Amino acid sequence: MRTWAEVADVGRLPDALVASVTQFLRNARSVPPAVRHQTAGRLAAQVAPFVAPGPPAGVLMEDFLLAVVAERRNRDFRMLSRQQERADAAAERLHSLPFS
Asked: Please, which domain of life does this record's source organism belong to (predicted)?
């Protein structure tokens, strides 16, 4: 599942949908199984049009949701890390300039 998520296009997910999925995943253990399964199915149906390629056959809906939001989080973190590195490099160059 991890390999699939690493190559899947998950970046177009609306932030509000990611927030809904994240909230569901955080609270899933405290939800009755029938409601949990129904909610996972509804959310997976909303997420699926934004993810390509789709998950491998037989993947549980909750696992699909978890993989998508985890991969999106990982990509966002890497992007922010690169931005911070560029900002640090620019600051270093700025501080090395002679001032008159």
From this structure: Bacteria
Rounded distance between C-alpha atoms, residue 100 and residue 98, angstroms: 7
Rg (CA), the chain: 19
Q: What is the mean pLDDT of residues 70-76?
A: 81
29 burial via Cβ count (<10 Å: 0-12, 13-18, 19+)? exposed
- Per-residue CA distances from 3 to 8, 43, 48, 67 (Å): 9, 22, 17, 10
Q: Is the pLDDT of residue 79 over 80?
A: no
Q: What is the mean pLDDT of residues 7-18?
A: 85
The structure's pTM equals 0.72
Residue the block writes with tokens 């569901």: 24
For residue 36, give both structure tokens. Answer: 């949990």
Amino acid at 39: T
